[in-house]
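Sequence and structure are kept together here, with a separate record for every protein. An example record follows, reproduced without changes.
>
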Amino acid sequence: MDVVNLLDEPRALCHLAGARAPANLSIDQFADTLPRSLQPVSRIPTWRGKQAYEGRWWFSSIAAHVAYASGGERDLLVWLDFAGSVTQLVRDPVVIVSARTASTPPLRPWLYAQTTDGSRRLYFHAKLMDRATDLDDVLGRAGIEVEIGMRLPAKELRFMKWLSGYRFTRFRLPLETEDQIRAACATPRPLGVAIHGAAQELPYDLSTIRGNLYSQIWRHEVNFVDGYSDLSDTARICAA
């Protein structure tokens, strides 16, 4: 069934956490609602024989799974997770219905995020590019940024995807141990040199120290000196 709005202002239809019935909010009311207070409007549809790339991404900064329906959605989740600035996140957060129209399709952002500086952003698929002006008019006045069809640098994304395997807590060591590992790269040096230097001071094998260093690189506690260079023992790293 089509959703029709007969009011003079656009409306935001969403599911508030813990509520049985959907909420019909003004755009300003929706802007005052935190992402963590929302539940997904709908689930990702599945059927027998469907060929797709849906799944769930363990988002390390909020310690929760976030569903994705395509490879592009997963890539953006990887990017945002590595950035480390997202504090709240919800998929399929709202349906935005235009004012007094029965012909304009509702706007369906696929992701709603809030960052450490308090700013909020709605992510839309590229197919809504032709409605970007409408989005800016509707959401910009409420203080919500709009991102449509975000293009991600392939080289950096490939680096992040590989490194994301070390975002889990099993690669972490006691805090004082991680401090000692970082001390081994207090000044810029090759990754392999830092690993062997830490192994001389700690009762851990090289693979454990290597995995922890990768984990600290993911958490931005150790950085690459030369940007997103190929990950090897000769790549130079330095404690953040």
User: Anything to note?
Assistant: The chain has a mean pLDDT of 89. DSSP finds seven helices and 13 strands in the chain. The helical segments are 27-31, 71-83, 132-140, 154-163, 175-183, 191-199, 206-218. The radius of gyration is 22 Å.
